[in-house]
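Re: the request from the purification team.
They wanted to know what the chain is likely to look like in 3D before they choose a buffer screen. I agreed to run a prediction and write the result into the notebook, where they can find it.
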Amino acid sequence: MRILQLCHKPPRPSKDGGCRAMDALTRGLLASGEHEVKVLTMETDKHPFLAKEIDSSYLEATQIEAIHLDTSLRKLDALSDLVTGDSYNITRFFSLDFERILTEVLRKKAFDLVIFESLFTAPYLRTIRKYCDGIALLRAHNIEHRIWHHLAKETKPLTKRVYLNLLAERLEEYEINVMHDFDCIAAISEEDKEHFEALGCSVPIQVLPFGLDVREFPPESHGPVNHVFHLGAMDWRPNIQGIQWFTDSVWPLIIRELPNTKLCLAGKNFPKNPSWLNAPNIEVKGEIGNAWDMMTSDGIMIIPLRSGSGMRIKAIEAMAGGRPIVSTSIGMEGIPGAHQEHFHIADAPEAFASAIIGLLSNPTEAKAMGQRSRQFVMENFENQSLINRLIEELKHSLPL
C-alpha cells in the first residue's frame, strides 16, 4: 500500500512516548516490505524537527517533510474560541501552511491509506477527503478529553478548574463528532476501544498498542533494587501533577521506613527549584541522553499519574527492561498484565508507599516481578506482529 502518515510532532528523534509510538508504526510498516510510507509532520518550538539527528536511511525511506506551527498559548485566540465555541486544544494545531503542503503532497501522489496520528491532526481530514480516495484512519494515542477532565478534577483553584472543565467539554464535543468522520479508528488499548464504543462510535475500531522490536529489548539488569525512579517530561501537566502528589503524600512515608532510599527524577523541562522537590533524598537528573539507562537501572519505576488516558509507553519499555513498577490505576491503563504478578497498582498514598517498601525490602521478589513482566512484553508487545495484525484486520473490515 501507499501510506501517508500525518504526525502532530516529529517521530524522530524520539523524545517521548508519543514519538516512539509513531516511529514504531512507521518502522513496522516499512519492515514488512509491502508498503511505501510518506511522513508529513508538524514541528513546533516544543517539538522541533532535527534532521541532523536522524539517520539518512529513515529520511530517504519516509521522504519526511516538516512544517513549523506556532502552537504557543495566546490569550486572544483562547478568548476567541470561548466565544465561537471551538476547541482551543484543536485549533492551535490548524495551519494554512500545513494544509498547503498537504495539498501539494496529495496532488502529486495517490494514497491508499492515510494515518492521522492523534486527534490533533483531525482538522486536516477535510483536505484529505477533497484530494484523496484512500482510507482515513485515526490513530488515537489517547481519548484526549478524558485527560482534561481528570486535570480539572485534580485542580484546586476554582477559576482554573472551571476553565479546564470548559476546555475538556469543548474537546469532548469535538472528539465525539469527528470520530464518526473517519473510516476506522486504531485505539491504543482495549480500554480505549471500550470508551470509544461507549461514546457511540459508529466506525470499525481496531486495537494497536505500542510495540517493541525484539532487537530493541535491552539486556536484563541483574542487581538488586536499590532506589526509586520516575521518567517523564515535566512540560506535560499530568506528570507534574503526579510527581507533586508523590513527593507530598507518598515519599515521606517511604523515607520514614527506609530513610536512606533515593528518588531519581529524569525528564526534560524540569522547573527550577519547585517547592514540591524540597523533600530529602531526591536527585533531579533532568533530561538524560538515553532513557534505557534508567529502564535498565537497579531501580523501581513509579508512575504516579492522577490524570491521563491511553497507554504509557514508558511502562512497556520499563517492563521490557525487567523493572518492577508501582503505579496508580491510570498509570497502567491499557496494559493487561496481572496486578502483583507483573506490577503493583496503588491509588492511595499508604498503599503506594507500602508497595515500594515491600519491593525494596524483598529484592528477590522485585527481581522476579521484573523477569515476569519482561517475558510478558516479549509475548504480547512485539511490534511487527502488532502491525501485521492491524493491516490484516483493516483488509477484512475495509475495502483496501
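For the purification team: The chain has 15 helices and 13 strands.
Please add any questions underneath this entry.
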